[in-house]
Amino acid sequence: MLRLAGLLSALCVITYAQCPNIITRSQWGARRVNCLSAMKTPVPFVVIHHTEGAACTTRSACISQVKDIQSYHIDSRKWCDIGYSFLVGEDGNVYEGRGWNKVGAHALGGMNPKSIGISVIGSFSSRKPNLAALNAVKSLIRCGVSKGYVRSNYILKGHRNVTPTSCPGNTFYNLIKGWPQFKA
Ligand SMILES: [Zn+2]
């Protein structure tokens, strides 16, 4: 009985600390940037996006998307880096954008310094992201809470709730409306 209890508590610790696989900037070959706007954590909001571009289901295809998005945000939008905190592919991986500690450029209305912006790679107006991507998003949010970057009573929002935009796509938006702690 005692052994079982020990085993169960060990399992709980493992589950609690578990974070999704996060491909770091150096692993995906991010361009070096110089924007150091520190974020005050834990943040009270999580904002969900889609990239509104092509989807990807392999690590190499997702890396190519993430690189293109970083270059687009730097060269065309004139932001100092990729706008999102994290990107998630339908390969089930999370790709580090600005990460947990730096203010992003993903949502206007004063939301950037108060939120983690998670963008699923693809267009989700008429279909949901696949299960691998959805699980990675949920796991990333839990990970942020467990590591103290996101408040446990965080509010989940879609990009369209804070800025006039169709992001994160009608089908994906309808799905996240049913997720825990969502508030339009
Ligand atoms: Zn968006």
From TrEMBL:
Leader sequence residues: 1-17
UniProt entry tagged with the keyword tRNA processing: no
Descriptive protein name: Peptidoglycan-recognition protein
Entry keyword set: Disulfide bond, Immunity, Innate immunity, Signal
Cystine pairings recorded for this chain: 19-143, 56-62
Family to which this protein belongs: Belongs to the N-acetylmuramoyl-L-alanine amidase 2 family.
Pfam families (UniProt xref): Amidase_2
Domain N-acetylmuramoyl-L-alanine amidase: 31-169
Any GO BP: innate immune response
Domain Peptidoglycan recognition protein family, chain residue ranges per copy: 20-163
GO MF term list: N-acetylmuramoyl-L-alanine amidase activity; peptidoglycan binding; zinc ion binding
Signal in keyword set: yes
Biological role: Innate immunity protein that plays several important functions in antimicrobial and antitumor defense systems.
